[in-house]
Write a structure and sequence with these properties.
Distance between the termini: 36 Å
Number of strands: 37
CATH topology of the largest domain: Alkaline Phosphatase, subunit A
CATH architecture of the largest domain: 3-Layer(aba) Sandwich
Shape: globular
Bound molecules: zinc ion
Length: 664
Amino acid sequence: MKSDPSRPVSRRQFCKTTGLGVGATLAFPSFLKGGLSKGTPKVAVVGADGMDPTLLHQYAAQGFMPNCKKLLDAGGFRKLKTTLPPQSPVAWATFVSGLDPGGHGIYDFITRDPATLTPELSTARTEAPKRFMKYGEYQFPLGASKLELCRQGPAVWDVLQTAGVPSWALRAPVNYPPSPTNAKTLCGLTAPDIHGSYGVFTFFTTDPTREPGDLNGGSIQRVRFIKSVAYCTLPGPENSFRKDNASSSVDFTVERDADAPMVRVSIQGHDVLLKQGEWSNFVQVNFTLVKHLAEVPAICRFYLKQVRPYLELYVSPVNIDPADPAFPVSTPKSYSKDLVREVGRFYTQGMAEETTALSAGVLTDAEFRDHALYVLNTDIKIFESQLNDFQDGFFYSYFSSLDMNSHMFWRTIDTKHPLYTPELAKEHGDHLPTLYRRIDDYVGKLIEHMGHDGQIYIASDHAFTSFRRQFNLNSWLLDNGYSGLKNRLDRSAAPNFVNTDWTRTKAYGLGINSLYLNIDGREPDGIVESGDKAERLRDELIAKLTAVRDPVSGEQVIRRVMKPDKSFRHVSGDRVPDLIVCYNDNYRASWDTILGGYPDDHVLDNKDPWSGDHCMDPDFLSGVLLTNAPLKTDTPALEDLAPTIINSFQVKVPDVMKGKNILA
Ligand SMILES: [Zn+2]
């Protein structure tokens, strides 16, 4: 986007065009006072998911973050109270709406439909059309399917834009599908890939030792060369036009060079030459649902990991194409196309870092790092491309990087993590500081752009800590008489609780921090009477769960268990968990518990590279607030930011926002 020629040229633009250049260092002294100019003020928020207060101070002291250090030295730092539970979608929904989880309705990454007990993503819901016209193997919907954002409440940028304040929300979290607004928004955290999931990769290999099949978040496909060509099939979205909903797909070939470590990928008329160790640019693919009638345009990237002895070709999760979005990813809808014209194609899924591929051993630490830097650099390119238009108003830019990479690389900085080794620390211990430094660069650019006035907030939704030990909540419930199995000998992680005997189950864990009772009249085979009996069961579970000790260290595993109806101002609906489990430092819900498995051990080591986390007790996981604005409190909370910012523009704060104005 080019700047509006009718607008007066700002001082910054003037300096730029005359070649004078104002360095961030020169811009800083008066900026540190955080004043707002007369007329429409300017306020910028850097949403740094997972920026940890301790690491911020450490890296600033070590010289990695000179721009943030100036704000720290000027007294602009406070710990920012996070939400219960401190999960990213829950916490960012609070930032966006100024409401607590009871108000915005997001309590966990995963929730369930109480009628079917099927786990589902908590932030967006798709409702299929009710009636179809059937024709052979196809069915044609009579009426549109409904895609709905589950986050309730106003969005801070929409309140401002409606009041006439130009507003941007780039990589806006918990905002898919984008809530209607005249503000310029691009979806971020919780925006799905083309499958409607948080990202499913495909890995094609000729390696006979690689077990083919579906992983949670990816699939491994065994292929073979016929002469020098391997024939592959890339899975696409489910085809709702087919009666059986079978997935669509696109065939492609991989031709191996006779001598050199390189291949040619041929897909739908595109020929992509790749050397070993090389990523492709984004490649457009079209999934045909009904020939000539319904196509889903999408994009993906190829990474040639290895050619010999075995082919290893990684294909990124297939994304919605921002240049031709099959599902809305921005407001206005054309905005994502404008961004493509500025910076080229980009990932539209909210969490584009390849965490599942690293956990599955499909990508190495070094490969994950390279790709993660690409994601961060692309986001920065998008944000910087919009700065020329931001002369006044509200500018929000969100980063997933610190969160995603801290999850995967905490084992490089925590000497007590089961996966820590000095060699690993030596090789990859610089990754997190590199990312913090890169975000600090952007902060410097933003401040430089803002010139001498305006307010900046660098805010994170929670801190980070180590995830050393995992707790099988459902196994504990089973072995303590709160749950039953149909086949008692099979405790494996059967998806969707298919082995659970609901007629003997009083409570079940689902999601990372949520615990539900099996309530009569709410769940299909509910056996717990609501009212006093349910209340007594909740109290009993709280007492017993907080008494659980780690058999190895004797440490308390669960610090607190909270009742949502007592913790939030108001709760409603049947998707509210009955209890929220707050784990102790270094403990978290196990991978199996999240999806309803019942392994034998209750507490065990976490040996997944996903080694850092924050889904514990919010009391020790407050995030970062770093600002040049004059703070009048030492205890700001995430829910205070929306009303404070709205107030800075002299716009009426919506009555539903209960947070306080934190500025003097
Ligand atoms: Zn987060």
